[in-house]
TrEMBL record:
Keywords: ATP-binding, Kinase, Magnesium, Metal-binding, Nucleotide-binding, Pyruvate, Transferase. The lineage of its organism: Bacteria, Bacillati, Actinomycetota, Actinomycetes, Kitasatosporales. The keyword Lipid biosynthesis does not apply. This is Pyruvate, phosphate dikinase. It comes from Streptomyces wuyuanensis. Residues 533-885 form the PEP-utilising enzyme C-terminal domain. InterPro entries: ATP_grasp_subdomain_1, PEP-util_enz_mobile_dom, PEP_util_AS, PEP_util_C, Phosphohistidine_dom_sf, PPDK_AMP/ATP-bd, Pyruvate_phosphate_dikinase, Pyrv/PenolPyrv_kinase-like_dom. Gene3D superfamilies: 1.20.80.30, ATP-grasp fold, A domain, ATP-grasp fold, B domain, Phosphoenolpyruvate-binding domains, Phosphohistidine domain, Pyruvate Phosphate Dikinase, domain 2. PANTHER family: PHOSPHOENOLPYRUVATE DIKINASE-RELATED, PYRUVATE, PHOSPHATE DIKINASE 1, CHLOROPLASTIC. Belongs to the PEP-utilizing enzyme family. It catalyses: pyruvate + phosphate + ATP = phosphoenolpyruvate + AMP + diphosphate + H(+). One of its GO terms (molecular function) is metal ion binding.
């Protein structure tokens, strides 16, 4: 029989797939002997059964009942008993944490009888009735589906009747009346009663948590975070403890290090006399955790000890929720905490220094996406008089945008291409779509552990929260700060590193990390303190990786920059970029040439220009390989637009002027060369085989540039790459021509020029016949852009705008296959070509130069596939180095 329920005492951290992150970590803390209120976890497997069949597994009810009885026996009290009742919390907990995205129901077990028992034992009648009021409200909306605002309206009406500003001023009689009104509301709206039987409350709450896996918020969050839809959530059922029982009680959230900066030392928020939800929602401003030291030194000391234990046990930043109930500390949750990019590098590097983790482990704690984030620009100014609001620097970075006051407006403006800053008093899970749409989130309430801060950090969004002097009036659509009224649409600059907001768009400058990469490490190895951690982990990545990293670059400037960024060569030099600008006229002349002589003259005019291009690049990359690709795009791309030309010719004709011979010839050529599907037409190697002399000119320019660099004392290492090969015969023909030209240049110059000759593998047929092609190739470079286009049959220029958002929405894929390699399809072709290419030609060099070469999520695949290098744009070189290092550990 399948076990669908596990007591906290049975289970542990390694079981997160089954118990969810929360359940697994509660079990782990229980095993470590920490004071965890007892409970049990219903597995993700049970949820998956529910999601696929619409019903929980038949055994579940019995298993829950058994665990509940055990819990009651151990506690010595029963759920719903009329005297000191046991109360439970029911919470979601997937394998991957999804903060606030699913449902929670607290105080399960309260009913018309047990509320009296709770009132008696807690000696706080008001507390008992308020808890019951909260249960009926939470249960009514999340489990029974009554619109939450109806409860709010009822509550406001009762507050108004009693002339009190908020519910904390309602007395016991008012609360009893509120509970009755809420129950009536549920009856009216659903035709059912609020269930009095605690076991029934529990059963329904569990099903509601299961169902919330497919709630709108949760689905949106998963799509953004690329969390698979089929994981399901576990449900933890835990004995309630109360932080709202008076001054010797309270709740808090704590981190073992600062999750924003990574600095050592415990960090967090504490809210005396409150329940955990109040801290996380940011509704009330908490005090810094350190103040607990003065309020309750014993609990504070204990908490510190537990935090030390957890951090050394998990060997990572731990994020903890705790409650103190009448001076007794309870640990309610722990998990490896989310952190900013900056904190990730700092913590990984510090923990390696402290010997908590190895250097290689430290590498696995950071990723390319975080590094990209650190390379973004920062504001040019710090401090200053133009600051209009200050708050908690909850998630660092620089963002400029128009202020908006609700999620709908944020999404509307962002869809129209505007950058926005979402401003709220505090955020709730309802604000998720707005947070995704915004550049930054700004709140007037809440600390570093508030919902806004936690979610923004997880997303890498800039966030300043708890800007208490700022008044947010969402209804009037304005904020008031520093005496200024800032209306919706006004532009502000939010500095999440400093925690300040300025009016207007503040200019940006290069980040320290970008400066570090762009200036290269000084000979003595010393770097600025702000980039010490990045430097350390980059050294580690370089030492660990097997993949080389090259750059896609076609100018000496780009080549030089790529080299400073750590590129070990050029993996793709696209020569088509050298045929633009002033040179178009030579290309035109080549295309329009009537006869060999005219064409040769046009090519001869291009030759010295190409030679100079290659000489410059080979010089910038001296000693390192430079893979130069022969011309790839269809030639008509270098001619004027057909419609423009036709209009020009027709206008001239209509005006009675004599025809312009050049325009007429150009129009005839453009018309002749027009293709319905140019991407599948006359391009790549096909051009080389049908346009006489074109590839020969390019090869000559390369060979002469090599000879020139050799004579100048350099070490040029040019490689010649043929694009869009489908069949080995194409490559054989081009290879013969290339060899002939290189030999001729060697004879003419007296310099022994030798260039490896290889091909791109960017068509499915090439991948599938890689064994034959490898016999004519010294290297393969996977052109995963075209390979994705032709494998999926997706036009790379059209489909992303046309329907990818619908495909992402409907879960056809979780990321664009043009961004992140499709391992199953395109990846399989790559693996086939690697295996068959290497089998036919041992020592064949293999690389990738499509966009995927610099995509953090794809580099690991190329490592696994056994490539020798990845090649990407210069700015992505550091990211690829880091990811290649991570892939190797
Ligand atoms: C490719 O197709 O992956 C490639 C690198 O070539 P291009 O993008 O120039 O077609
Ligand atoms: Mg291509």
């Amino acid at each position: 029989m399948t076990d669908y329920v596990y007591d906290f005492a049975h289970g542990g951290r390694a079981m997160a797939d089954l118990l969810g992150n929360k359940g697994a970590n509660l079990a782990e803390m229980t095993r470590l002997g920490l004071p965890v209120p007892s409970g049990f976890t219903i597995t993700t497997e049970a949820c998956r059964v529910f999601l696929s069949t619409g019903r929980p597994p038949p055994e579940l009810e019995r298993q829950v009942a058994d665990h509940l009885s055990a819990l009651e026996r151990a506690a010595g009290k029963r759920l719903g008993q009329a005297d000191d009742p046991l109360l439970l919390s029911v919470r979601s907990g997937a394998r991957v944490s999804m903060p606030g995205m699913m449902e929670t129901v607290l105080d399960i077990g309260l009913n018309d009888y047990s509320v009296l028992g709770l009132a008696k034992t807690s000696e706080r009648e008001r507390f008992a009735w308020d808890s019951y009021r909260r249960l009926v409200q939470m249960f009514g909306s999340t489990v029974m589906g009554v619109d939450g605002s109806l409860f709010e309206e009822t509550l406001t009406r009762i507050e108004d009747q009693h002339h009190v500003p908020d519910d904390s001023r309602l007395d016991v009689c008012d609360l009893i009346r509120t509970v009755e009104s809420f129950k009536d509301l549920i009856g009216e709206r659903t035709g059912r009663d609020f269930p009095q039987a605690p076991a029934e409350q529990l059963r329904q709450a569990v099903l509601a948590v299961f169902a919330s896996w497919n709630g709108e918020r949760a689905r949106l969050y998963r799509r953004r975070e690329r969390i698979p839809d089929d994981l399901g959530t576990a449900v933890t059922v835990q004995t309630m403890v109360f932080g709202n029982l008076g001054r010797d009680s309270g709740s808090g959230v704590a981190f073992t290090r600062d999750p924003a900066t990574g600095r050592r030392g415990i960090y967090g928020d504490y809210l005396p006399s409150a329940q955990g939800e109040d801290v996380v929602s940011g509704v009330r401003n908490a005090v810094p955790l350190q103040e607990l030291g003065a309020l309750d030194p014993a609990s504070f000391g204990q908490l510190q000890e537990y935090m030390d234990r957890l951090e050394s046990h998990y060997r990572d930043l731990c994020d903890i929720e705790f409650t103190i109930e009448r001076g007794r500390l309870w640990m309610l949750q722990t998990r490896v905490g989310k952190r900013t990019a900056q904190a990730a590098f700092t913590i990984a590097s510090d923990m390696a220094d402290e010997g908590l983790i190895t250097n290689r482990q430290a590498l696995t704690r950071v990723n390319g996406e975080q590094l990209t984030h650190l390379m973004f620009p920062r504001f040019a100014v710090t401090g200053g008089a133009d600051v209009i609001a200050r708050g908690v620097p909850a998630s660092p970075g620089a963002a400029v945008g128009a202020v908006v006051f609700d999620s709908a407006e944020a999404v509307r403006r962002a869809d129209a291409g505007e950058k926005v800053v979402l401003v709220r008093n505090e955020t709730t899970a309802e604000d998720l779509s707005g947070m995704i749409a915004a550049q930054a989130v700004l709140t007037s309430h809440g600390g570093k552990t508030s919902h806004a801060a936690v979610v923004a950090r997880g997303m890498g969004k800039v966030c300043v929260c708890g800007a208490e002097d700022m008044i947010v009036d969402a209804r009037a659509r304005c904020l008031v700060a520093d005496g200024l009224t800032v209306g919706e649409g006004s532009v502000v600059s939010v500095d999440g590193t400093e925690g300040v907001v300025r009016l207007g768009a503040v200019p940006l400058v290069e980040s320290d990390v970008m400066h570090y990469f762009d200036s290269g490490v000084p000979a003595d190895g010393t770097v600025r303190d702000s980039v010490r951690h990045v430097h350390r982990l980059m050294l580690e990545a370089d030492a660990a990786r097997h993949l080389e990293v090259r750059a896609n670059a076609d100018t000496p400037q780009d080549a030089a920059r790529a080299r400073r960024f750590g590129a070990e060569g050029i993996g793709l030099c696209r020569t088509e970029h050298m045929f633009l600008g002033d040179r178009r006229r030579f290309v035109e002349a080549m295309i329009l040439a009537e006869g060999d002589a005219e064409r040769s003259a046009a090519l001869a005019a291009l030759l010295p220009l190409q030679r100079a291009d290659f000489t410059g690049i080979l010089e910038a990359m001296d000693g390192l390989p430079v893979t130069i690709r022969l011309l790839d795009p269809p030639l008509h791309e270098f001619l004027p637009d057909r419609t423009d030309l036709a209009v020009r010719v027709a206008r001239r004709e209509a005006s009675g002027a004599p025809p312009d011979a050049r325009d007429t010839a150009l129009l005839a050529a453009v018309t002749r060369m027009h293709e319905e599907n140019p991407m599948l037409g006359l391009r790549g190697v096909r051009l080389g085989l049908v346009v006489p002399g074109l590839f020969a000119m390019q090869v000559r320019a390369i060979a002469e540039a090599v000879a020139e660099r050799e004579r100048a004392g350099g070490t040029p290492r040019a490689e010649i790459m043929v694009p869009l090969v489908d069949a080995v015969e194409e490559l054989r023909l081009v290879r013969d021509e290339v060899e002939r030209v290189v030999e001729a240049v060697s004879t003419e110059t007296g310099v022994e020029v030798s260039c490896p000759i290889g091909t791109m593998i960017e068509l499915p047929r090439a991948a599938l016949t890689a064994g034959s092609i490898a016999q004519e190739a010294d290297f393969f470079s996977f052109g995963t852009n075209d390979l994705t286009q032709t494998t999926w049959g997706f036009s790379r220029d059209d489909v992303e705008a046309a329907f990818f958002s619908a495909y992402l929405e409907q879960g056809v894929f979780q990321a664009s296959p043009f961004e992140t390699i499709d391992r199953e399809g395109v990846g399989r072709l790559v693996r086939i070509a690697v295996a068959e290419g290497r089998a036919a030609h041992p020592g064949l060099e293999l690389g990738v130069c499509g966009e995927h070469g610099g995509d953090p999520a794809s580099v690991g695949f190329f490592h696994e596939a056994g490539l020798d290098y990845v090649s990407c744009s210069p700015f992505r070189v550091p990211v690829a180095r880091l990811e290649a290092g991570r892939a190797a550990v």
